[in-house]
Amino acid sequence: MKTRVEPNEPGIETVEQLEERLSEPPPGVVETMRQINGDIIVLGVGGKMGPSLARLAKRASDTAGSKRRIIGVARFSTKEAQVALEGHGIETLRCDLLNEEAVRLLPDVPNVLYLAGMKFGTTGQEALTWAMNAQLPAIICKKFARSRIVVFSTGNIYGLVSAAGQGSGETDTPAPVGEYAMSCLGRERVFEHFSRARGTQMVIVRLNYACDLRYGVLVDLARKIVANEPVDLGMGWFNTIWQGDANAMALNCLNHVSSPPVILNVTGAEKLNVRQCCEKLGALLGKAPRFVGAESATALLSDSSRAFRLLGSPRVSAEELISWVANWIGRGGDVLNKPTHFESRDGKF
Questions:
Q1: Sheet containing 70-74: order of strands
Q2: Average pLDDT estimate for 222-234
Q3: 11 vs 55, more confident
Q4: Which helix (H) or strand (E) holds 204?
Q5: Residue 23, by phi and psi: left (phi above 0), alpha (psi -120 to 50) or beta?
Q6: What's phi and psi for 44, nearest 5 deg?
Q7: What radius of gyration, in Å, describes the C-alpha atoms of the chain?
Q8: Which of 85, 111, 126, 283 could join 90 in a cystine, given CB atoms 3.0 to 4.6 angstroms apart?
Q9: What is the pLDDT, as a whole number, of residue 17?
Q10: What is the DSSP string of 289-329?
Q11: Is the pLDDT of residue 151 over 90?
Q12: Phi, psi of 281 (to 5 degrees)
């Protein structure tokens, strides 16, 4: 279903334009690629963020004049995803990362981006969730003990905090709610153990929530508005960040690894109100949003000010992202049908 939107063209109207914008390298990433040595491997490249992250690394390296291999590793359930990556000069390897023998056969690479993990559909698959999120890190740490590793984690490990504040900081005590969040804290603890025991240099990125127009909190809200479905206000506030900015910050982390690991929150600069975002989206979409419930006093929020100081600030503001999402959804753009479930307050995904 297409919905009329007010004139506000961001220049992202096709998947090709979206992928081009997501992988556009900012100067800071180009400089990072100039400074670090060696090839880069992206583990779990087949997920939501992996393809654009690998392509960003490739484009930034080429711009920097740094000759290196960018290697993407995944199970690749579809051949199309693998072919698309290879078409952009990214080497691909099929591998079940839970197979320790298969992981041992992966090339030794000095720079590792770890994106593997499980969130969607964790309810009912708790055992697999723990295996993916807490056992797999040990396999990876044994293989890449001498590498720099940037680990993608989640802000869900903090639990809910006062919506009146700026959000959880990196020194706050984790308070995970539900098995998904607990397994993600397990992932962090396993990486931290191997970093301390073997001196592996790492950064742990606590991300929430990335948005690339095909998925994300704003996409979830826009789709509800277009479908005339009520928006639950229980989780009344959230953070989000343009996926291109999250990927850029992750690559810049390669210059800030240490043992024990550096921990950085990565999300947008703004604390966003669900009702206000829906009203802005609705105005652009020409649809009045419907609401149920009321804002709670707590929400899942993170303070990313430390990451901004080290890695640079996001280039895309929340206002721009809202406009882009409205334009994309209003045009009937492709979506991944992977809702964030950001509204979950009981940790069930």
A1: 91-94, 70-74, 40-43, 111-114, 148-154, 201-207, 262-266
A2: 97
A3: 55
A4: strand 201-207
A5: alpha
A6: 85, 35
A7: 19
A8: 85
A9: 95
A10: --EES---SEE--B--HHHHHHH---SS-HHHHHHHHHHHH
A11: yes
A12: -60, -45
Residue 150, both tokens:
């940037």
- Flag whether the pTM goes above 0.70: yes
SS3 25: coil
Query: Which amino acid, one-letter code, is at 343?
Result: E
Identify whether the C-beta of residue 92 lies closer than 8 Å to the C-beta of residue 82.
yes
Domains of the chain: 15-210+242-268+301-314 (3.40.50.720)
Strand ranges (DSSP E) for 78-185?
91-94, 111-114, 148-154, 161-162
Look at residue 120 and tell me whether its pLDDT is greater than 70: no
Q: DSSP letter at 281?
A: H
Q: Is the pLDDT of residue 150 over 50?
A: yes
pLDDT value at 9 more than 80: no
Distance of alpha carbon 245 from alpha carbon 257, whole angstroms? 19
